[in-house]
Amino acid sequence: MIYLDNSATTKIDPRVLKAMLPYLQEEYGNPSAKYYTLAENAKRAVEKSRENLAKLINCEPDELIFTSGASESNNFILKGIADFYSNKGNHIITSLVEHSSILETCNYLESKGFEVTYLGVNQYGQVDPNELKKVITKKTILVSIIWGNNEIGTLNKIKEIGQICREHNVFFHSDATQVLGKIKIDVQDVPVDFLSFSAHKLYGPKGIGACFIRKDELGLKREITPLIHGGGQEFGYRAGTLCTHNIVGFGKAAEIAYNEMDNYIPNIIKLENELKAKLESEIKGIKFNGHPIEKIPGILSVTIPGVNNELLIRKLKNQVAFSTGSACSFNKPSKVLLAIGMNLKEIRNTIRISIGKFNSDIQKIPELIKSC
Ligand code: PLP
């Protein structure tokens, strides 16, 4: 089986699993408990993971909190900002190509009286920063724009967008789930206030994610209404006993990405370019979606005339795994592909191939597709 759905999830790195296991066995202390060694060990492991993730994005460790995943991080930031800053304004700006955990949260906030502007995108799936300038009003409290798209791989102009938000004194959040460990993220260079992440896209475990929450101008913690109230864990932003083993797994995955990204990303790009060239030469009329250069390494959105994507995936299900688009929007036409101007027929002809660091030989993919 050739696994090419690495944007849906990744296989856990064996070193990540190894790092996690002690925290499911002998090191079972609660990191929030006090004074005894078992608790101290767990607390130390959590803080080490926070440091590893902080190193990967160049922030302070206490600017990161752990969540259950990027869906929760997205919900927390959007709902938390909307609630806490509602006296300042009721307007949120996002785009048509966000993950469902942003779009559905925006729908929910609209039902609570917030106004949401959904920016369109160009043919590659990018938000035009000038369009953003036009729609910011005095009531805008938050802009949330995806960093790199999960379906077509296109990268947004996050630095420019962040600068516009700074100039207008508006918070800026970006869903960075698909870019962590694939492109360099440096929050000292990019004016972003909040980021969302998920470990399972990074060869880490499922059910664990994080939020970057930049401190304010005075170096104080930014105030946001918590999504989960309770015991005050995670600096009061997110209550609940910490999932130590998953946090340790995320930390190890971040450490590996920090040390090894420069080795495995060029290999992913090489595999992608070779596959793209082979698909182009062997399948007539094939089309690639998304930006050809400003893109996440490894994601290929491919439209193959005359092919039904669902049937193709089912026919090849024991040989290869790829997807019609986002794993979270199966059975609905992709909003991302609609937003870049594709019609329903083209969308049905489209598959997403996402290459990861464990892939090696994927050259028989065109042959497999042609055999269907
Ligand atoms: N945001 C993006 C861009 C994603 O690709 C995903 C996962 O598919 C998510 C958010 C949700 O992540 P999680 O599975 O950790 O909730």
From TrEMBL:
> What species is given as this protein's source?
Anoxybacter fermentans
Q: What class of enzyme is it?
A: transferase
Q: Which InterPro entries match?
A: Aminotrans_V_dom, Aminotrans_V_PyrdxlP_BS, Cysteine_dSase, PyrdxlP-dep_Trfase, PyrdxlP-dep_Trfase_major, PyrdxlP-dep_Trfase_small
Q: Could you tell me what this protein is called?
A: cysteine desulfurase
Family membership, please give it.
Belongs to the class-V pyridoxal-phosphate-dependent aminotransferase family. NifS/IscS subfamily.
Residue ranges of the Aminotransferase class V domain?
2-360
Recorded hits in PANTHER family, A to Z, give: CYSTEINE DESULFURASE (PTHR11601:SF34), CYSTEINE DESULFURYLASE FAMILY MEMBER (PTHR11601)
Q: Which cofactor does it need?
A: pyridoxal 5'-phosphate
Q: Which Pfam families match?
A: Aminotran_5 (PF00266)
Entry superkingdom: Bacteria
Catalytic activity as recorded in UniProt = (sulfur carrier)-H + L-cysteine = (sulfur carrier)-SH + L-alanine
What are its E.C. numbers? Answer: 2.8.1.7
Q: Name one GO molecular function term.
A: cysteine desulfurase activity
